[in-house]
Amino acid sequence: MEKIKVGVLGATGSVGQRFIQLLENHPFFTVTHLAASEKSAGKTYGEVMKSRWKISSDIPAYAKDIVITLPKPTATKGVQLVFSGLDSSIAGEVEAEYAQNDVIVISNSKNHRMDPHVPLMSAEVNSEHLEVLKSQKTSGKIITNSNCTIMGVTISLKPLHDKYGIESVMLFSMQAISGAGYPGVPTMDILGNVVPYISGEEDKAEIEPQKCLGTVENGQIKSASFAISAHCNRVPVFDGHTVCVSVKFKKKPSKEEILKTWKEFSGEPQKLDLPLAPKQPIVYREEDDRPQPRLDLDTGRGMATVVGRLREDSILDWKWVVLSHNTIRGAAGAAVLNAELLYKKGLIPS
Amino acid sequence: MEKIKVGVLGATGSVGQRFIQLLENHPFFTVTHLAASEKSAGKTYGEVMKSRWKISSDIPAYAKDIVITLPKPTATKGVQLVFSGLDSSIAGEVEAEYAQNDVIVISNSKNHRMDPHVPLMSAEVNSEHLEVLKSQKTSGKIITNSNCTIMGVTISLKPLHDKYGIESVMLFSMQAISGAGYPGVPTMDILGNVVPYISGEEDKAEIEPQKCLGTVENGQIKSASFAISAHCNRVPVFDGHTVCVSVKFKKKPSKEEILKTWKEFSGEPQKLDLPLAPKQPIVYREEDDRPQPRLDLDTGRGMATVVGRLREDSILDWKWVVLSHNTIRGAAGAAVLNAELLYKKGLIPS
Amino acid sequence: MEKIKVGVLGATGSVGQRFIQLLENHPFFTVTHLAASEKSAGKTYGEVMKSRWKISSDIPAYAKDIVITLPKPTATKGVQLVFSGLDSSIAGEVEAEYAQNDVIVISNSKNHRMDPHVPLMSAEVNSEHLEVLKSQKTSGKIITNSNCTIMGVTISLKPLHDKYGIESVMLFSMQAISGAGYPGVPTMDILGNVVPYISGEEDKAEIEPQKCLGTVENGQIKSASFAISAHCNRVPVFDGHTVCVSVKFKKKPSKEEILKTWKEFSGEPQKLDLPLAPKQPIVYREEDDRPQPRLDLDTGRGMATVVGRLREDSILDWKWVVLSHNTIRGAAGAAVLNAELLYKKGLIPS
Amino acid sequence: MEKIKVGVLGATGSVGQRFIQLLENHPFFTVTHLAASEKSAGKTYGEVMKSRWKISSDIPAYAKDIVITLPKPTATKGVQLVFSGLDSSIAGEVEAEYAQNDVIVISNSKNHRMDPHVPLMSAEVNSEHLEVLKSQKTSGKIITNSNCTIMGVTISLKPLHDKYGIESVMLFSMQAISGAGYPGVPTMDILGNVVPYISGEEDKAEIEPQKCLGTVENGQIKSASFAISAHCNRVPVFDGHTVCVSVKFKKKPSKEEILKTWKEFSGEPQKLDLPLAPKQPIVYREEDDRPQPRLDLDTGRGMATVVGRLREDSILDWKWVVLSHNTIRGAAGAAVLNAELLYKKGLIPS
């Protein structure tokens, strides 16, 4: 079976680098084009990234010799699908242009996330939202994934919401610096420090989970109706967002019911045995002091959601801690998983 | 006026070191005795602390030549008051023994905190709780201060509680490593990491503020009746606990009312112009991204509570961020301020 | 071919954990015994290590159910070889006792390192030193590996010493906190700080490379005769020792000669294709700012020595930077490689 | 006596911020002008710096309302002296222009440092170099201070060079991130990491100390003739450069002679009792593991050089560790001290 030809838009950024890493030797996709800004266009990826590659393994050989183009459909002719890690300042238009030119756009950017015709997808959570693709008027389609901060939170909520109904969620994040890209956070701001503010983050965290857990009605996604309050913080951690959540349910489950629900949770990626799917989407740690970024980040090759410290909440019902890898599960990995799902469901036209 | 002779119990620990620093050239108190465990007893403080002094200024000259004793009233004869930074494994008994021997005990340990006859005092917040000292049956009296985590939170709640009534509080802490003492947290556990658990901390955080904000009834302190839910986390910050709080009020104030209430808040330490009292107990920062440990920790010489990011909460009423210096305002400084208050109110018998 | 039955002494420590990780599914060795101190003896490894396992992957399944014994030959009956990560306070005697009881001891401890009858071995560097095993009077034999700090340095010097003769070496290390074990370095000592001192480290660094690069004479190892001056420093890095070296040669090579020598360097582990041998023992990075722990630590699965910044020295001849993984190449990995070499050379009696 | 009117060029940068802090309530100088780039010009300092002030105390009140100008003599009319923390891309020309317009320039930039007519001054070390000011042809004069990395090293060498003659110096630095300014080092590059390279730093470190320790001959400064080899490294420390040095002398002193020489060392700033002069320019710490940034940085209010670990070197003669505060003693503080010296010596024309 021939592989799908794909491009990576925003290939030099943090998320772009993860795309390139995760797509190395991918069974479904072959990267033929890498696109970035004018500064990089015309040079090989290896040349441009020599001092900018920030993942602790070498640049994959396949990518080194690809000559970077601009992120335009005319410049990346032949690709059937693009992964977009573009900056939100340009992602909206560029992605729309690709969709208008028959290309599937798997986007990690925020621009189209809240469009009711665009799935805000986490493949285990809401693959049924793909139905709304039909209502997109372009020949290509846009699929987004949620913000890194709420990715793991939403996964931990999904099976509980289905059974018990979420009524409200307080969430407090401690977010890794890689979430701000490169150069991103200046060391003088975060070394031995915490910053209780991340521009725009709380806004996203308070609306995206409801869309992920929403329903399809008349070809549009209708967000679930619970309330979220978010406190977002930056901490001196390299990768891995840790989120403390307190949750009120419509019908309060027991501790055993919650643990059993998480343990048994499995989605379409697991059923279809997608290449990047973690075997166990939600891994619960029994230890008092887990999850922790340093010890649990690589669970399921960075694709699992690690949960711990389930205990009663004296104001809402239950509270727990969620960890997910912000540049893998929370960004590039989630996007690749979405693309794998489309592929297996035959939704990528050839 | 002659100075009060005081001792420091647990003088070699983190809190003990801060006591020694804060008591240098103190106008009311003169340190005559330093007590610690058997390992240190019999040696001079300077000798013992050569490689254990962890504050970035030299050991005060006055302390260097004091020969350390055991923490027993018979070993520290002549002291009228002791500051206790003892480990909780022994603080309960030792402090009681001092109180039985006519000595005022200003304790930072948790052992007697929840005794309804013992003030859990933050001098700006509840100096009227000193009234219950009369109900203590010993000749000496015990006064405690609250846990470092909730110190600033309680101060930020106090004037609002008085006017608007607290109904519930969600709190989420990011706590400095100095809170665990020395050697305390192993570097392997926290470098580039966060640990979403601190043993015993959430239990304390969920009951101490209510006692601080309680009322005196029949010679006992009766805790206020609101609910608290706490998530406590350790982060790689040296000094300074940052706490995100969401609060529901009995009567919801406006943003302006809250800011005005904080600005105008002042307590007995300010009225009596106590040496360690911050001029402004609550300092509100207007910037989007404050307070931060690195930039705001020294506000009011580490004795002020720094607040920022006041904004509406979509589940409770309001949310904000509180920073206080955990080993100064949250421990030794709060204790010294309590002692200063006793002194000025004539409650230290000579 | 049947696997060699091995034990790990000091199995609960940092080096012990690495042994257990590296020996999972090993083609030559099967771990039958784990030994540690009295506190742990009698319990299963999984039980003891629940909150002490500090590697970011789970405890290997094979180890979890092994019941820990004391480190005594009578307690670990049946093992043909032991890997020792014992604390130096007891390693000397315990290892000797094993050697007297027919067991091969592969030790990472310092106690026997400077004994002229004991190889101080880095398998690529001085496998010919195994010859002195014959002169050990015990039925079992002891083989040690060098200190983590000088491991990579010695490898980078080896092929140059052979061709050009080392005359003197200045070395300045920036050492990771994992080198001090667990709990090891208190966070209060190293967060946002450097400590220009590591007890005993400079002494070892100034004599071990000469023994590694020495010759066998009359059944004993005679150290090479060049001088070393070492400055050893602790820095807030998790894993990976970075060492700056300045070197004077007997016959000064050109830059090209040095680079070519490193590139072509290969030792017996590569010839014998040992399981843990890195394909390229010395990897030179051309970038200005490499090697760095974060980016280069996993080169050759942590078994390669990464070198960079080769440039002329205005006082000695040449200077460069060396990085090696202190708990893999500098400790457990070097030891396992030594054991693999013995195995392939038929030096482990069955 | 009227205060000298001064300006700060590059007032918004890291060094500029320190200037503004150190000049608050200065007995000799009053800041009348602050200059920065076009982005800031025309706005008040308080407005521009709201989110860019990175020192952990508030912006001094005096500076908040000063309207920033461009760094041009016509824009800062009336100043008799400027402190320059300008970026080297423009410092050369701007400083020369000021000197041509009767203004004394106290520069922290590198541009004019190696000009034989310009003192590269550390006030305790080479105040006699002021003699070459006469040979500068402009009406204003330029005085520079050395690079932060070698500031403390040079001070520790100065009295030894005078008595015993330096023959060669190996130096190895571990430099704080504040040395790179703001935003400076991206967190992704340095968190839990070290970078063994700082662009241009080794070049400066290998020539500046010799100029500082040089002699005036025919109205020019002639550098001392010893050799230096430098390894410069970036570490995750906020403030404070730690440097390990190994030194060969023309005539090897004893340990006691070195310690005595350091203890007795005192320069013109001490004789003239300059406001910013540390009482003891060189402070030796006896502890095994000092100096350390966290514990020793504030010695002499950041103006002292802290030395420790003096021991014999097996290749050169002696080795030790030097710490100095890179943005105070190594930059703004050194510059202000130079200006204070000029003032007291009557070298600032009114």
TrEMBL record, chains A, B, C, D:
GO molecular function: aspartate-semialdehyde dehydrogenase activity; NAD binding; NADP binding; protein dimerization activity
Role of this protein: Catalyzes the NADPH-dependent formation of L-aspartate-semialdehyde (L-ASA) by the reductive dephosphorylation of L-aspartyl-4-phosphate.
Gene Ontology biological process terms, A to Z: diaminopimelate biosynthetic process; lysine biosynthetic process via diaminopimelate; methionine biosynthetic process; threonine biosynthetic process
Residue span(s) of domain Semialdehyde dehydrogenase NAD-binding: 5-133
Protein name, UniProt field: aspartate-semialdehyde dehydrogenase
The protein's Enzyme Commission number: 1.2.1.11
Homology family: Belongs to the aspartate-semialdehyde dehydrogenase family.
Bilayer-spanning residue ranges: none
Keywords per UniProt: Amino-acid biosynthesis, Diaminopimelate biosynthesis, Lysine biosynthesis, Methionine biosynthesis, NADP, Oxidoreductase, Threonine biosynthesis
Pathway listed: Amino-acid biosynthesis; L-threonine biosynthesis; L-threonine from L-aspartate: step 2/5; Amino-acid biosynthesis; L-methionine biosynthesis via de novo pathway; L-homoserine from L-aspartate: step 2/3
Enzymatic class: oxidoreductase
Catalytic site positions: 148, 241
Matches recorded under InterPro entries: ASADH-related, Asp-semialdehyde_DH_CS, Asp_semi-ald_DH_pep-lack, NAD(P)-bd_dom_sf, Semialdehyde_DH_NAD-bd, Semialdhyde_DH_dimer_dom
